């Protein structure tokens, strides 16, 4: 469960970084 939660958090952070990078 912890690993899945960490993965979700990482994907969310990566998504934000990718979005900011395109701006």
Keywords, please?
91% helix, rod-shaped, mainly alpha, 23 residues
SSE inventory with pairings:
Elements: H1 2-22
Please state the structural category.
mainly alpha
The residue fraction in helices comes out at: over 70%
What's the end-to-end separation, in Å?
Answer: 34 Å
**Element-level helix/strand string:** H
The tally of helices reads 1
- The low-confidence parts are none
Oligomer: single chain
Strand content: under 5%
Task: Give the mean pLDDT.
Answer: 93
Radius of gyration: 10 Å
Biggest sheet character: none
Question: Can you count the beta strands?
Answer: 0
The 3D shape can be described as rod-shaped
Describe this structure in words.
The structure is a single chain. The termini are far apart. It is built from one helix and no strands. It has 23 residues and is mainly alpha-helical. The mean pLDDT is 93.
């Amino acid at each position: 469960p912890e690993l899945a939660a960490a993965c979700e958090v990482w994907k969310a952070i990566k998504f934000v970084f990718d979005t900011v990078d395109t701006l």
